[in-house]
């Protein structure tokens, strides 16, 4: 093995180990940390991230990565690892320390300001902070990719090769097809009141754990806990953790949370079973978008399907006896109810992408168009009416809704919608490999889903970060990403549900 | 402020923060970590400890500490901080990296060997590893304190200024008085069968949490969890965590565990409320021995007293209704039953020190006498019979009983007994400050123990690591440590219980 490759592999393992420690600090903060320890914990996390940054930006490491770049004699997974670090050295590692410090301080202040603005429903308080963050992100974009437009540089940070040229037609296509579906559904009502009854948390948690296990989560390599916002994190190659919550009034929220997070977890758990990439930076999902496709595939495409609940519903009824008087079909319709609404994270499967497209359009304007920060709330509300067909009541359900911008995450939102599109494309290929939709249904109805997860593992999971998102989707489906599979999926599913 | 002092304070804060991260890794390992992640976690912990060691042994830090040493113009707490690091540079930091590596590897192998030997009840398997560890500790002792005898050097590592000259007469005194008490108790029997009934774990845990809170544990600055072996750890100045367990057949084991660990936790929680020392290496208990005195003070001297249970017993009976048929006095006697037994951690308050003295005598022989490793099991059994008056059945309850030696901890055991002696000395001064034992009883019987904890805080906790153990005990009690207070305490208490 070339000594440079050995150095890169060793350094990468060390950095992964340090990142796992950082992830533990964060996991503990969300699940256990005593209230008054929060500031100190933030300092500890800052300390860890500076240790990681120092380790990752050492000269010998950078030189080794550069010397290996383009070496076609390397094994596929080694080339992927070199590529991973090359991307790092082109982006994060290229930022001067003075910039990183300035950005870090700005982010700390912004988060506090966003919290206050949101609680007071007063955007003007957050506005100067947001303006500053946008300016910093423009500065960042210019440093990391001087040849690209600002927003394309940011998009690529979260999803390799993603740009406006790809997203614009995809999103236009989605708007059109979603609106056409919404027109047909119009004011057809579904009764979902049975989801909003009070429930026994302990019973529902037992059901959640059963779902988690049934999907193939390995408790000897992971753990499930509670937190205010569900998330998945990797603390080590055999230590993938998910959280869920029981704070939403809907009985279905905890169910979709656990299924969603378990979808994420299975990706990392299985990538790390591939010895060639385990314990390394490519021993995990390849991108935000592909990761989200795995969680949303389970949460929505499997976990909100009739076949899935044909098996699971009687089990759920045993845990939550008050559902015994509700018919499967009524439950199925309720969990798929379509209704334009304010809050992205609670949106139904049909209108969800419109929430993303709204943010995408605003981010494009912020970075490449002409818009004043003070015009943003009104713009949000206008886009909400046009796209989602929802009248925003106040800035808390408008411009102040998400934490992302206060965290400097511009260009991140589109990966959520990519997740839906990738997910549907994978589903379509899975169905064709299984020999038709009835075969998928039969598997779901059997309650033994290993044929599905084996397919995911063979096609997606076990490759970890070896293939770029665009290469992966081509490799699996034979073509580049489009919105067709998702459009067909929605029309078929919702035509049946709403009898269109 | 002298720039060297500023450097020392900043570096110390950073190291404390890193040590907190290391403590979190360890806490998580004992409470949550998935089974298959154990090896990786050990690597992560090794990585953190090498980062800490690197930070702590930097030349500029050492030079700053050395330049401040002996500067009488410094504030008391700053002198203590300099002294703390001076001790470090004289001990750990003086060990060559080659030695640290050799010892680390030996410890890893020894722990595995001890586990296997213990499970197979085969000391000969562990013997060569133990021999190696003893040799390594002798080497270490010579490096860190070439002027001292080997064993004195090791004793001082865990308790400043502790040596054989101090321990020999104390322990001889203890043997004599303990045997005299045991002679009187002889075969007087106490029925403690009511402690060995099956119990509702959840109810007992609720009671544990009530005790923990009643002692003054602050849930906004700490957390209680479960682990195989109870322990207390400091992850940050406002983040002190304790664990307990419900695996012992005795109903009283979880109770004494939580009280013991909460005793430890209160020390660190309150030391860190003193702004002059908070977040620093001296913002925690000063030594193992003093720390243990705070836990055993609560566990035994308060938590096994009649006055304490006069208040707490009806509450316990509410949680564990099967105790309603048991009288307070019978319960009180049961939890104080004296019986020579095999296992140190389950020993009663009277015979406990004999277990420690046995190990002390063996360690002295190992380091400064003439004994072959292969003779150790027999020696253990002989000492057990002489000291504890217990016939050891096999090496699992003999030489292979404790994990300490497999972890290279020689010279550590005596701190447990010191905890008893310090604890009794503090108790005696507390009683005199309160105006007599009846006043202490009245406080315990009231269920509001803040007068006791305030006294502890004023006299012990808030000083953290400012005073050395020997200075602290003199400062509080007006004299140096002896066994008198403990002897008097035992005789008074057990004369009443056993009607001697």
UniProtKB/TrEMBL annotation, chains A, B:
<comment type="similarity">
    <text>Belongs to the peptidase M32 family.</text>
</comment>
<keyword id="KW-0121">Carboxypeptidase</keyword>
<protein>
    <recommendedName>
        <fullName>Metal-dependent carboxypeptidase</fullName>
        <ecNumber>3.4.17.19</ecNumber>
    </recommendedName>
</protein>
<keyword id="KW-0862">Zinc</keyword>
<dbReference type="GO" id="GO:0046872">
    <property type="term" value="F:metal ion binding"/>
</dbReference>
<dbReference type="GO" id="GO:0004181">
    <property type="term" value="F:metallocarboxypeptidase activity"/>
</dbReference>
<feature type="active site" description="Proton donor/acceptor">
    <location>
        <position position="261"/>
    </location>
</feature>
<keyword id="KW-0482">Metalloprotease</keyword>
<comment type="function">
    <text>Broad specificity carboxypetidase that releases amino acids sequentially from the C-terminus, including neutral, aromatic, polar and basic residues.</text>
</comment>
<dbReference type="InterPro" id="IPR001333">
    <property type="entry name" value="Peptidase_M32_Taq"/>
</dbReference>
<keyword id="KW-0645">Protease</keyword>
<feature type="binding site">
    <location>
        <position position="292"/>
    </location>
    <ligand>
        <name>Zn(2+)</name>
    </ligand>
</feature>
<dbReference type="GO" id="GO:0006508">
    <property type="term" value="P:proteolysis"/>
</dbReference>
<dbReference type="Pfam" id="PF02074">
    <property type="entry name" value="Peptidase_M32"/>
</dbReference>
<keyword id="KW-0479">Metal-binding</keyword>
<feature type="binding site">
    <location>
        <position position="264"/>
    </location>
    <ligand>
        <name>Zn(2+)</name>
    </ligand>
</feature>
<feature type="binding site">
    <location>
        <position position="260"/>
    </location>
    <ligand>
        <name>Zn(2+)</name>
    </ligand>
</feature>
<keyword id="KW-0378">Hydrolase</keyword>
């Amino acid at each position: 093995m070339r000594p440079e490759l050995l150095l890169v592999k060793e350094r990468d393992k060390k950095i992964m180990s340090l990142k796992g420690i950082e992830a533990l600090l964060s996991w503990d903060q969300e699940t256990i940390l005593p209230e008054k320890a929060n500031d100190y914990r933030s300092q500890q996390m800052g300390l860890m991230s500076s240790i990681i940054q120092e380790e990752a930006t050492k000269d010998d490491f950078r030189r080794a990565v550069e010397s290996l770049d383009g070496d076609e004699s390397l094994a596929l997974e080694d080339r992927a690892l070199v590529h991973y670090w090359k991307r790092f050295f082109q982006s994060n590692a290229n930022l001067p320390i003075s910039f990183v410090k300035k950005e870090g301080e700005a982010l700390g202040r912004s988060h506090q300001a966003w919290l206050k603005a949101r609680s007071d429903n007063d955007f003007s308080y957050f506005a100067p902070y947001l303006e500053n963050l946008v300016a910093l992100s423009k500065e960042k974009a210019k440093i990391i990719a001087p040849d690209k437009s600002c927003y394309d540089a940011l998009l690529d940070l979260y999803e390799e090769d993603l740009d406006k040229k790809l997203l614009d037609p995809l999103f236009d296509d989605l708007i059109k097809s979603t609106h056409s579906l919404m027109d047909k559904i119009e004011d057809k009502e579904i009764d979902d009141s049975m989801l909003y009854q009070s429930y026994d948390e302990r019973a529902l948690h037992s059901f959640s754990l059963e779902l988690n296990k049934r999907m193939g989560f390995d408790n000897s390599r992971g753990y499930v806990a509670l937190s205010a916002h569900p998330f998945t994190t990797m603390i080590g190659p055999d230590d993938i953790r998910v959280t869920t919550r029981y704070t939403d009034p809907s009985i279905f929220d905890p169910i979709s949370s656990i299924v969603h997070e378990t979808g994420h977890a299975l990706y990392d758990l299985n990538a790390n079973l591939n010895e060639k990439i385990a314990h390394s930076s490519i021993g995990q999902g390849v991108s935000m978008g592909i990761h989200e496709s795995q969680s949303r595939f389970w949460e929505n495409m499997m976990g909100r399907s009739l076949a899935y609940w044909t098996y699971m519903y009687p089990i759920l009824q045993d845990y939550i006896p008050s559902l015994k008087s509700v018919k499967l079909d009524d439950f199925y319709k309720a969990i798929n109810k379509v209704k334009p609404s304010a809050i992205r994270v609670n949106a139904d499967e049909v209108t969800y992408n419109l929430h993303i497209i709204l943010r995408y359009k605003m981010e494009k304007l912020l970075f490449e168009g002409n818009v004043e920060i003070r015009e943003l709330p009104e713009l949000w509300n206008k886009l909400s009416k046009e796209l989602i067909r929802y009248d925003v009541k106040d800035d808390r359900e408008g411009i102040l809704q998400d934490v992302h911008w206060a965290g400097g995450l511009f260009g991140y939102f589109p990966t959520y919608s990519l997740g839906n599109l990738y997910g549907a494309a994978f589903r379509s290929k899975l169905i064709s490999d299984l020999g038709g939709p009835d075969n998928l249904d039969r598997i779901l109805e059997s309650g033994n889903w290993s044929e599905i997860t084996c397919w995911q593992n063979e096609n997606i999971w076990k490759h970890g970060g070896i293939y770029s998102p665009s290469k992966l989707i081509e490799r699996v489906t034979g073509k580049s990403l489009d919105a067709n599979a998702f459009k067909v999926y929605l029309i078929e599913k919702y035509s049946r549900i709403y009898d269109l």
